[in-house]
Amino acid sequence: MIPIAPSNPAHHQAIARIWNDACNAMTGSHTLDITPRLAQFNLGRASGATQAGRFAVDGDGNEVGYVIASAQGKSGWIDSIAVEPATQRAGAGAALLAWAEDWLLGQGCTFARLGGSLRPFLPGYPRELGRPDWFTHRRFEVGKPDWDVAADLAILRPYHGSAGEAPAGVEARMALPGEEAALREFFVRAFPGRWLYEYDEHLREGGKISDYAVLITPDSGAPRIEAFCMTTMADSLRPLDRFYMNTLPRPWAQAGPLGTSETLRGKGYAALAINTALASLRARGGRGCIIDWTSLTDFYAKFGFRKFREYVGMTKRLG
Questions:
Q1: Is there a contact between 65 and 11 (Cβ–Cβ < 8 Å)?
Q2: Which of 64, 178, 196, 266 makes an SS bond possible with 187, Cβ 3.0 to 4.6 Å?
Q3: CA distances from 177 to 53, 184, 203, 210, 260 (A)
Q4: Where does residue 278 rank: exposed (0-12), middle (13-18), buried (19+ CB within 10 A)?
Q5: pLDDT digits over 59-104, tens only?
Q6: What is the pTM of this model?
Q7: What's the CA gap between 162 and 272, in Å, rounded?
């Protein structure tokens, strides 16, 4: 095994090749193909986290498998693991996984989650790959599933929910330059965990504030952000590869995560934020759209989104 170099373009290409070959052999299709851009982005530095990876190489020095792991505090992730079809069942995958688990233990992690990391390749194990028993035989435990849901924005109609159109004094639109601090204040107040972290990372790396839809309400005479919905298109910081939309009509688009402050939940304001995000994506030419990594499939069905891909949640106690 040799280390993966995060800034090496040849390593980005090798990761995409190995992943695509492995998934194509298991599904008989290209539905889970990625490009080297996703590997490059996900090997970038995540604040407060550490990451490492290894290639398995054959006798001729060719990369035939890889694993990437990351850690933050006691949280550990197997970000991605794959082996070329011709090399499978020869022990390379088991050796790579064992290396990753040992590395996570060395970082002080007590659990390893398959997928779902701070720069996720995917939320969990894609159900369509089959063979989750490869992981359960290695003491991974199966948890609740998550879903991606999909729709064609060209034929989608807004669902307004109980709020209907925006009430008087409430403004729903894409965020504007200069509102970075106001949106951060909302995350600190309403979602101080992962979504705040991801927002800070988005701005740190040069992401656009206009990728966020916001809902603004009067508060003692001063406007305040009370809901958000993030969006992604080809010109966004996040690669669209991460959402595996190869069977959807182009141009691709993505929405989520979405959140409303606790005081406004249950009033239909989430629908206003979603409709604003989807209208912006449609205005920019988006068609095939994913709302990713959710268990709220019935909620998003009201907006015309159908179940698209299921992910199996898997975790393992280390040591």
A1: no
A2: 196
A3: 37, 13, 11, 7, 21
A4: buried
A5: 999 999 999 999 999 999 999 999 999 998 889 999 999 999 999 9
A6: 0.94
A7: 10
The residues facing 254 across adjacent strands are 232, 290
Is residue 286 exposed (0-12), middle (13-18) or buried (19+ Cβ within 10 Å)? buried
The 3 state secondary structure assigned to 99-159 is: HHHHHHHHCCCCEEEECCCCCCCCCCEEHHHCCCHHHHCCCCEECCCEEEEEEECCCCCCC
Sign of CA dihedral 25, 26, 32, 38: negative
pLDDT at 170: 85
**What's the start-to-end Cα distance of the chain, in Å?**
22
Rg (CA), the chain: 20
Residues whose CB falls within 8 Å of the CB of residue 216, separated by 6 or more in sequence, listed in order: 170, 171, 172, 173, 223, 224, 225, 226
Name every residue whose Cβ is closer than 8 Å to that of residue 12 and which is 6 or more positions away in sequence: 36, 37, 39, 40, 43
User: The tokens 């359960």 sit on which residue?
Assistant: 136
Overall residue count recorded for the chain in this entry: 319
Counting as low any pLDDT under 70, the low residues of the chain are 160-168, 219-222
Interior CA angle at 39 toward 36 and 43, to 5°?
A: 145
CA dist., res. 225 & res. 191, Å (int): 12
Please report the pLDDT score of residue 218 as a whole number: 81
